[in-house]
Amino acid sequence: MKEEHMAKDKPASGIPPGSWPVPLGLPLYVTVEQAAKLAGIGRDRMYEYVNSRADPIPQMRVGRAKTLIRTSAIPDYLRRRETA
Question: What is the pTM of this model?
């Protein structure tokens, strides 16, 4: 009985509510095109960030051709790319 009560209070994964790395409704990873749209920049510019040798945006490859970008990394990455 006590375990049932605890299960309702905390997520099964142990992640406290409100601390998930992306806002509700957004996936953890998005395609390059979706990341560009979320960031408000062009698709070609986002591909430049993906292919940057010096400072690539956090990403992972799925299969041979698909690249996914971590949604939570987009704001921090763009802040780093800003010019003063």
Answer: 0.69
Sign of CA dihedral 76, 78, 83, 84: negative
Phi then psi for residue 54, to 5 deg, are: -75, -40
Q: Tell me: the pLDDT tens digits for 47-69?
A: 999 999 999 999 999 999 899 99
Is-contact 41 50, C-beta < 8 A?
no
d(CA 72, CA 28): 7
Q: What is the dihedral of CA 67, 72, 74, 75, to 10 degrees?
A: 180
Mean pLDDT of 14-19: 48
Bridge-based pairing of strands 59-62 and 66-70 is antiparallel
CA distance 38 to 28: 13
Element (H, E) at 61: strand 59-62
